[in-house]
Design brief:
Elements: H1 18-23, H2 25-33, H3 37-45, H4 47-51, H5 58-66, H6 69-74, H7 79-88, H8 93-99, H9 105-113, H10 139-149, H11 152-165, E1 172-179, H12 183-190, H13 200-204, H14 207-215, E2 220-225, E3 240-243, E4 247-250, E5 263-264, H15 267-279, E6 285-287, E7 291-292, H16 294-304, E8 313-319, H17 329-344, E9 351-357, H18 374-386, H19 388-392, H20 396-403, H21 411-418, E10 430-440, E11 443-451
Parallel strand pairs: 1-9, 2-8, 2-9, 3-6, 4-7
Antiparallel strand pairs: 1-11, 3-8, 4-5, 10-11
Helix pairs in contact: 2-7, 5-10, 8-9, 12-16, 15-17, 17-21
Length: 454
């Protein structure tokens, strides 16, 4: 089932959606750089040298050199960003808009004086209005397309062969995994302390998980965590943010970056999920450049150990649980259901796991620092398994009073739980593993693996 994109049949119009944003990220970032006078001067002095500093595609760079705005938009450009390039060239917005219509500057101005282009005949492709003709193209774009056409037939044949060899099947969520993401766990791994008496019982609880992971390796992990003042400082705090990049660098949280591999993303699925979930009325922030901190890398270590590279792709999904107001458990549970629908609407046959991280009971600040409530934590695990919908109704203040000020991170587990099949009427999940341990630094550690039943 494809995403609903009704704007695709609007003539002469490119809507800047999540796919376009992902595709055009570096092109648009290049344009933003031209807001600084020094950068404009360097670009004007040597365009090729300046463009070489940006990891754009060769086609995007060719479109910039040609100053073909339609071509730039076809490769992911957004007109508000591209206007910085036009401004660098001394063009007005009207001149830029006119260049995309196939009219001369004077013809375009005359049209605007007459009241602008009329919507009649221009609402749907094929109506015959004055925006229905071929898109204005530079000679450079035409030459590029002619060159690309040479390999098109072979590519189409190859894609058709691959499609015929794969059964028609969409992506599916196979399991959900839950755990605490304590930074000290990462430090114990990095400094070889996992066998020390303090740490050994905690790490022993994840030995089964590593074996299970080898037998149930997914194609993609949708990993729900919170950024710990790493990417999002107090100037910008998104409630929900999804990482759509192809790669994510480990962050320096003050001690230097952790010695773990870069995280491989899945831009196409991430963009698909973003568009689908936003269409289901959840407001996501789309992040095309993101560094990942211990909230994401510690869970990866606990399930995979310390490999030279991570064995599957990861989609980072940040939830604000640092500054109030934070999203409610009910909102997170409903979001998980929207994410499941988004993943199941993706046409590629991918196996996806969804991980919920954070918690369990802990408080890191004030005279009540060090609070642990093991009885409450285990009751939370019971309810998460048996009655997640009722659990999702628990108010924030209960988390704070019973599980500590940072115990509110557990709402992120409800996103992963909401994505499981039984919430949508399927069979109850299989509890493959459950583990609880106190302490890991300042925190009670909880861990749970739930398998969807086919």
């Amino acid at each position: 089932m494809s995403l609903n994109k009704p704007y695709l049949d609007v003539p002469g119009t490119t809507i800047f959606d999540a796919d376009q944003s992902r595709k055009g990220y570096w092109l648009n970032q290049f344009c933003m750089s031209l807001m600084k006078a020094d950068n404009r001067a360097r670009f004007k002095q040597d365009e090729d040298a300046y463009l070489a500093e940006w990891p754009m595609t060769d086609e995007q760079k060719a479109a910039v050199r040609a100053r073909d705005l339609n071509w730039m938009m076809a490769t992911g450009g957004n007109i508000y960003f591209l206007s910085k390039l036009g401004a660098t060239d001394g063009l007005s917005f009207q001149q830029m808009a006119g260049s995309m219509t196939g009219m001369t500057e004077q013809q375009y101005r005359d049209m605007m004086v007459r009241g602008g282009r009329h919507p009649e005949g221009n609402r749907y492709k094929g109506e015959g209005g004055d925006a229905q003709g071929p898109m204005s193209q530079s000679e450079a774009w035409k030459a590029w397309q002619a060159k690309a056409q040479n390999g098109l037939a072979a590519s189409v044949q190859q894609a058709q062969t691959a499609a015929n060899s794969i059964a028609t099947m969409g992506a599916r969520i196979t399991a959900s995994v839950y755990f605490s993401h304590v930074p000290a766990i990462g430090a114990a791994i990095d400094h070889g302390k996992t066998a020390e008496p303090y740490w050994a019982p905690m790490f022993q609880g994840f030995e089964f998980s590593k074996r299970w992971m080898k037998e149930h390796l997914p194609d993609v992990i949708f990993l729900v965590y919170n950024d710990h003042a790493t990417n999002f400082d107090l100037s910008v705090i998104p409630t929900f943010a999804i990482g759509t990049a192809a790669e994510f660098e480990p962050a320096d949280e003050g001690y230097g970056p952790r010695p773990v591999p870069r995280v491989k993303g899945h831009p196409r699925l991430a963009s698909h999920i973003a568009q689908s979930v936003i269409q289901q009325d959840f407001d996501l922030t789309i992040v095309n450049q993101l560094k990942v901190d211990h909230g994401l890398t510690v869970p990866m270590n606990l399930m995979f150990g310390t490999p030279a590279e991570w064995p599957c792709a990861v989609i980072p999904f940040h939830v604000n649980v640092v500054q109030y107001p934070v999203p409610s458990g009910a909102r997170c549970f409903a979001l998980g259901q929207a994410i499941r629908r988004a993943i199941e609407s993706y046409d590629e046959p991918l196996k996806v796991q969804i991980w919920g991280t954070g918690g369990m009971s802990h408080q890191l600040q004030g005279p009540r620092a060090g609070l642990i409530n093991a009885e409450w934590d285990n009751r939370f695990l019971d309810r998460l398994i048996a009655d997640p919908k009722e659990l999702s109704a628990m108010p924030h203040i209960d988390y704070v009073r019973e599980a500590g000020s940072e115990g509110i991170e557990l709402v992120m587990w409800l996103i992963a739980r909401g994505a499981m099949a039984d919430v949508a009427g399927g069979a109850a999940p299989k509890v493959a593993h459950r583990f609880f341990h106190v302490p890991a630094s300042n925190t009670a550690v909880g861990h749970l693996i739930l398998e969807n039943q086919a």
